[in-house]
Amino acid sequence: MGENQDDDHHQNGDVRRHSEPTIKRRRITKACDFCHRRGRKCKPVPEGSGVTTGASPGGTLSCLTCIEHGATCTWNRVAAKRGVKSKTSPSSSVNNKQTHSGDDGDGDRWFYDESRHGSRSLIFRLISIFFDTVYPVFPFFDEISLLRDWENTSLSSSRASFARLMAICALSSCHVSDGAVFNPDLPAPLLPQHHQAYMEDAQKAIPESNREIGSFEAFDYLQVLGTLSLAATQLKDDPLFHECMGRYHTLVAQHTFHFEARWPSNLTYPEKHVRRQFFWSMYRLEVHAALIDGHVIRCPELQCAVAYPQQVDGLAGIIDASGQTEKTRFRHGSWLTGWNYITDLYRVLEHVIVRMRKDRLKALDRGPIEHEPLMPSIDNMLEKVLEKKSNLPPYATHAYPASHDVEANLCGFQVANIACTFQVSSSRSYSKEESRLNFSSYFEWQRLLVTTNSRMLAAPLSS
Question: Residue ranges of the Zn(2)-C6 fungal-type domain (predicted)?
Answer without folding.
Answer: 26-84
